[in-house]
Every structure is written in C-alpha cells, then in structure tokens.
Amino acid sequence: MKKIFGIVLMLGGVGIFITSNMFFGIMITVIGLNMLVTEGTEINLENKTYRSLKSILGINFGKWKPCPEFEYISVFKTKEGTEVSAYGATMATFKNDIIMLNLFSKGNKHLTVYKTEDKADAFKVAEHFKLALAIDVLDATQKESVWM
User: Which of 4, 138, 143, 148 could form a disulfide with 74 if both were Cys (CB 3.0 to 4.6 A apart)?
Assistant: First the structure.
C-alpha cells in the first residue's frame, strides 16, 4: 500500500510540476520518492561482510563492513508502522504484523536481517543462517521463547 501511495504521489507531483505550481510539484514528488525508499541489510556469507543499505528504484547505497561474531538468530513477531507526513502533519499511517529476524552478537547488539509476513518463510531463512553461520535459532514468536 505504501508503494502504491508513493507512486501516486510521485506521479501527481510531476503532473502538478508540469501543469501549474513548480514548487508544490517538486515537494509532492519528493514525498512520493521518499515513500519508495526501502531500507535493509545485505549480508555476504562468503566474505563474512554486511552492509546496511537504502534502496530507491533498485539502486542500492551502503558501505560493506566485516561481520561481528554472531551468537544466535532471533525470530519474533511485531507490528510495523509507517507514517507519511509533510510539514509536521501526519497524512497517513500504515500498520501491519510482521515477523523479523535479528542476528545478535556480543554485547546484545543486533542486526535486523529479514522481515516477512509468513512465519514458515521466516523459519526457512533462519535455518539458512543457522547452517551458514553455525549459530542457534531462538523462536520468540510465542509468549515463551524456545531454542531450536
């Protein structure tokens, strides 16, 4: 829904820019583009490096860093909310239930590596990380956390 809203704002902003108000058109286009930006983490398991990245229209930005020594991966449920705001006012809020995977290293530091709405998919990815990094999986999707 967020991407659709971002595309509509972007196209509407371009239309306003062309037909009437240049400043307002640029503002609406920038808000639309901002909604199309995605953030995430990319891990290269062969080189043991990772990067936090931002992507807009398929172009990735981020610097590669060496991976810390990960202790375990946690799979848990949470709610994700996205607010669209302009000039300090919230225009819309989008919320949905998601399952996240975090890799934890020493000092209880974590790195979010995956988000999904499908529990089976989350555990499939967690199992891949378990095998690739030789770490344990913590199932925190229920009230009682369980080591797998």
Answer: 138
Distance, CA of 125 to CA of 6 (rounded, Å): 29
Round to whole Å and give the CA distance between 38 and 84: 14
User: Taking the chain, what is the end-to-end CA distance rounded to the nearest angstrom?
Assistant: 34
**What's this model's pTM, rounded to 2 decimal places?**
0.66
Q: What angle do helix axes 22-36 and 2-19 make, rounded to 10 degrees?
A: 160
96-105 residue pLDDT tens: 788 999 999 9
Cβ distance 134 to 123 under 8 Å?
A: no
**From residue 60, how far is each of 4, 67, 107 by CA, in Å?**
20, 19, 29
Both structure tokens of 27: 């503002």
Per DSSP, the three-state class of 20 is: coil
Quick one: how far is CA 48 from the chain centroid? 21
Integer angstrom CA distances of residue 88 from 25, 84, 91, 122: 18, 10, 9, 36
